[in-house]
Automatic annotation (TrEMBL):
Gene Ontology MF annotations: 6-phosphogluconolactonase activity
Pathway(s) annotated for this protein in UniProt: Carbohydrate degradation; pentose phosphate pathway
Gene3D superfamilies to which the protein is assigned, alphabetical: 3.40.50.1360
Superkingdom, natural source: Eukaryota
Species the sequence originates in: Ilex paraguariensis (yerba mate)
Uppermost EC category: hydrolase
UniProt similarity note: Belongs to the glucosamine/galactosamine-6-phosphate isomerase family. 6-phosphogluconolactonase subfamily.
Catalytic activity annotation: 6-phospho-D-glucono-1,5-lactone + H2O = 6-phospho-D-gluconate + H(+)
Domain Glucosamine/galactosamine-6-phosphate isomerase: 19-248
EC number: 3.1.1.31
Designated name of the protein: Probable 6-phosphogluconolactonase
Matching InterPro entries: 6-phosphogluconolactonase_DevB (IPR005900), 6PGL (IPR039104), Glc/Gal-6P_isomerase (IPR006148), NagB/RpiA_transferase-like (IPR037171)
Length: 265
């Protein structure tokens, strides 16, 4: 199946498309529809971005009809992870999103919440604590609600990518951050993917999101995709269980795959 048809499996749907371009078209409509829905229901739309290939796959959202059809003034933007680099570094997830998305739409700047890192003795732990405190203040201001079920903040939509090792955000196989059940935001100093120091949301926060899109394209992620979607018990040589296998959403997790990523399905 390569037409984006939906295969529902218990709060998870897998949408397969022929090409990456088809994924980009469907992703833009999915995001715009959720924006309309959440703004109608609660007056705002809180969106968490990743780095990597996601921002390019979001490219259709900054084209007609969405460019002028989406109510950008009601959007609030957050990051699921950030590399510990200056915000203007080519490695920065903020810069990636700024250049490819945020600079093209009219989201008020005070509604954009990058993860701040200032070089110096305080290090990534300080940046993680700082982001968590800023999120807690947004809970106090009622911009973010707290889940009565999990006690973690609820974001409307989280847009995730996945690396070939099955990592999501900066939660990697064989790293303890993927088991953190207490913090909202944590840090890693030995990420296997460079740069090594990073800040990241923890799984309890990711999994409290209402909607999650797992946007996965390209042949190099096909094995991890196969492990995540077909097998609970086998890791086929990857170091399992993979972080991506721990992702779930409160309402719905939607996988967007192109034919290459879905190759081993
Ligand atoms: O390092 C990262 O990798 C993941 C996956 O990136 P992709 O290029 O394979 O799509 C990304 O989601 C994360 O935000 C980023 O920091």
């Amino acid at each position: 199946m390569a037409d984006g048809s939906v295969v529902p499996i218990d709060r998870k749907v897998v949408r397969k498309f022929k090409t990456e371009e088809d994924v980009a078209v469907a992703l833009a409509k999915y995001i715009a529809d959720l924006s309309d829905k959440f703004i109608k229901v609660k007056g705002s739309f809180t969106v968490v971005l990743s780095g990597g290939t996601l921002i390019d796959t979001m490219r259709k959202l900054v084209e007609p009809p969405y460019l002028h059809g989406v109510d950008w003034t009601k959007w609030y933007i957050f990051w699921v992870d950030e590399r510990v680099v200056p915000l203007d570094s080519p490695d920065s997830n903020y810069k990636l999103a700024h250049d490819g998305f945020l600079s093209k739409v009219s989201i008020p700047s005070h509604q954009i919440y990058p993860i701040h890192y200032k070089p110096g003795p305080q290090g990534p732990e300080f940046a993680a604590r700082d982001y968590e405190e800023r999120l807690r203040k947004l809970v106090e201001k009622k911009i973010l609600p707290l889940s009565p079920v999990t006690g973690f903040p609820i974001f409307d939509l989280m847009l995730l990518g996945m690396g070939p090792c099955g990592h999501v955000a900066s939660l990697f196989p064989n790293r303890s951050q993927q088991n953190d059940k207490k913090d909202w935001v944590t840090f890693i100093t030995d990420s296997p993917k460079p740069p090594p120091p990073r800040i990241t949301f923890t799984f309890p926060v990711i999994n409290t999101a209402s909607e999650i899109a797992m946007v996965v394209t390209g042949l190099e992620v096909s094995l991890a995709t196969h492990v995540a979607l077909k097998s609970k018990h086998h890791d086929f040589g990857l170091q399992g269980p993979l972080p991506v296998q721990k992702v779930s959403a409160e309402v719905l997790l939607t996988w967007f795959l192109d034919e290459n990523a879905a190759f081993q399905q």
